[in-house]
Amino acid sequence: xxxxxxxxxxxxxxxxxxxxxxxxxxxxxxxxxxxxxxxxxxxxxxxxxxxxxxxxxxxxxxxxxxxxxxxxxxxxxxxxxxxxxxxxxxxxxxxxxxxxxxxxxxxxxxxxxxxxxxxxxxxxxxxxxxxxxxxxxxxxxxxxxxxxxxxxxxxxxxxxxxxxxxxxxxxxxxxxxxxxxxxxxxxxxxxxxxxxxxxxxxxxxxxxxxxxxxxxxxxxxxxxxxxxxxxxxxxxxxxxxxxxxxxxxxxxxxxxxxxxxxxxxxxxxxxxxxxxxxxxxxxxxxxxxxxxxxxxxxxxxxxxxxxxxxxxxxxxxxxxxxxxxxxxxxxxxxxxxxxxxxxxxxxxxxxxxxxxxxxxxxxxxxxxxxxxxxxxxxxxxxxxxxxxxxxxxxxxxxxxxxxxxxxxxxxxxxxxxxxxxxxx
Length: 424
Hints:
Blueprint: H1 21-26, E1 33-37, H2 44-55, E2 58-63, H3 69-84, E3 94-99, H4 106-110, H5 113-117, E4 121-127, H6 131-134, H7 137-141, E5 143-147, H8 153-165, E6 175-176, H9 178-188, H10 192-202, E7 208-209, H11 211-218, H12 230-244, H13 248-260, H14 265-280, H15 286-300, H16 306-319, H17 325-338, H18 400-414, H19 416-423
Parallel strand pairs: 1-4, 1-5, 2-3, 3-4, 6-7
Helix pairs in contact: 8-9, 8-10, 9-10, 9-11, 10-11, 12-13, 12-14, 13-16, 14-15, 14-16, 15-16
């Protein structure tokens, strides 16, 4: 079922617009080497073969899992002779496809540079990792870097229905129920190859594939989870409430349900980042760092490996001390602002970096805290109407147990200036 032309490619429309470099390559009018970066089963190998066919070149494939410098140089030597041609045959360019190029060492990647620079080969390299971190800079600069995206549910369903009807596939000999299609889409995780493998396994012994056939063929039960319906919201709610309630096992369970159902990992990462500030905050400031790091892993590595980072973040947040201090602080401050309790900025805090500012009293008598040995000085910072208003109220959970006394001490020092002024 590998696409034989541009029209059969499913997804990646952001790369295949009219006049785009990839479309030019696949249609035979481009000549740039490319690095295709994206998740498995999104069309990297397909595009390489279409480029080779469009350019009339000889398609050669190497896998970074098994090829070394010796194999790379051997292919390049053959490509050089093929490009020169002979008395009987005109020259022919070689399209060299390298899968998992990020697994090549620096020496192996360097061995490609001259051949790419001099157009001895048209390189099409595929990687599931961000090439900015896994491919040497000289090779990056000689290639177009194009990022492929995971196929959508609609894309996967199109791939499956085409395979059921097409003579290259099941040729219309099998009927597939909607529930079976839904499960095949869910287990694919945006990977067309995985979806087709599951379809083929399900069709081995029946002419009508239903949900039970798919579950039996791939030994995986369907997860009752509709990403656009009640299950999505219910499971997400239970996930967050389990973390908030410090039930690490329930939190990991709901995380697993979302992952198994094909929930967008970026959505999960966003929820974790929000929760880190909403329900933990300063009780464990490293929770937000962990959640942000998990989101970066989702972006840079992708699934399925990113599930480990999401699990680590979930465990960290569920077992961390909890505090709603961040939410309460900004909520109280916004309530005051929205009710009109803003007030003028004290004159000594106003901008004084323009001519005439001092004459207006701006910046006059401002005390620079770093001039004090303790780094804190008595000084009014809040508008007059809000002096003494406490927004942040630390708990005695986690790090806030230490922050609380410090906040009280800081307020005592800072607000001392106001107290002395009022006493006079």
